[in-house]
């Protein structure tokens, strides 16, 4: 599979993502620039983490207007795979490819730490290869990660089994302390109704190399490669 990793002005996890896909997972990767108007034949588009346009006006609000986003939307509309990590997730909600919004964390602070995630569904390429009972240790680093959706939107997300991950504690249980940002229903990631667009706030690419002593994130990429 050929992956495309998009760099926006202010992206800072683009090279981490390229490294994991290319060097750890052995995949072909095309670096895409936000001003490109072609996806250069990639099968799977990744919008990486960072601070596109300095997070003005809201995280992702300006990046959604980048020239490449028209092509990303066409790709998704045709059923092509798109994944947004952290700032990438914010760009996907801003552009309407995913429902809901990422609001400021409820403590109004930037949070950088390891959290635990449990897959919420097996019906997606990114979760199908994961252990439904396991808590995966994955880092977060965001100031605007509190997933919010109006009641009717949230109902359709839940009814359509679109939640990909919940924040849990190390024992894979939801607890008062497991949700770092106050997101509704402890949601850490969702997919679209077509199940080809994924968004998540935690960073699996930061936990995919044995040198970092945590390869839990590598399982997410293995699942993608197996089921996409
Ligand atoms: N790691 C990131 O992608 C940063 C996310 C984002 N711009 C925020 O602070 O909310």
Automatic annotation (TrEMBL):
<comment type="subunit">
    <text>Part of the FGAM synthase complex composed of 1 PurL, 1 PurQ and 2 PurS subunits.</text>
</comment>
<keyword id="KW-0067">ATP-binding</keyword>
<comment type="pathway">
    <text>Purine metabolism; IMP biosynthesis via de novo pathway; 5-amino-1-(5-phospho-D-ribosyl)imidazole from N(2)-formyl-N(1)-(5-phospho-D-ribosyl)glycinamide: step 1/2.</text>
</comment>
<dbReference type="InterPro" id="IPR010075">
    <property type="entry name" value="PRibForGlyAmidine_synth_PurQ"/>
</dbReference>
<keyword id="KW-0315">Glutamine amidotransferase</keyword>
<keyword id="KW-0436">Ligase</keyword>
<comment type="function">
    <text>Part of the phosphoribosylformylglycinamidine synthase complex involved in the purines biosynthetic pathway. Catalyzes the ATP-dependent conversion of formylglycinamide ribonucleotide (FGAR) and glutamine to yield formylglycinamidine ribonucleotide (FGAM) and glutamate. The FGAM synthase complex is composed of three subunits. PurQ produces an ammonia molecule by converting glutamine to glutamate. PurL transfers the ammonia molecule to FGAR to form FGAM in an ATP-dependent manner.</text>
</comment>
<keyword id="KW-0963">Cytoplasm</keyword>
<dbReference type="GO" id="GO:0006189">
    <property type="term" value="P:'de novo' IMP biosynthetic process"/>
</dbReference>
<feature type="active site">
    <location>
        <position position="205"/>
    </location>
</feature>
<protein>
    <recommendedName>
        <fullName>Phosphoribosylformylglycinamidine synthase subunit PurQ</fullName>
        <ecNumber>6.3.5.3</ecNumber>
        <ecNumber>3.5.1.2</ecNumber>
    </recommendedName>
</protein>
<dbReference type="InterPro" id="IPR029062">
    <property type="entry name" value="Class_I_gatase-like"/>
</dbReference>
<dbReference type="GO" id="GO:0005737">
    <property type="term" value="C:cytoplasm"/>
</dbReference>
<keyword id="KW-0658">Purine biosynthesis</keyword>
<dbReference type="GO" id="GO:0004642">
    <property type="term" value="F:phosphoribosylformylglycinamidine synthase activity"/>
</dbReference>
<keyword id="KW-0547">Nucleotide-binding</keyword>
<dbReference type="GO" id="GO:0004359">
    <property type="term" value="F:glutaminase activity"/>
</dbReference>
<dbReference type="Pfam" id="PF13507">
    <property type="entry name" value="GATase_5"/>
</dbReference>
<feature type="active site">
    <location>
        <position position="203"/>
    </location>
</feature>
<dbReference type="GO" id="GO:0005524">
    <property type="term" value="F:ATP binding"/>
</dbReference>
<keyword id="KW-0378">Hydrolase</keyword>
<feature type="active site" description="Nucleophile">
    <location>
        <position position="86"/>
    </location>
</feature>
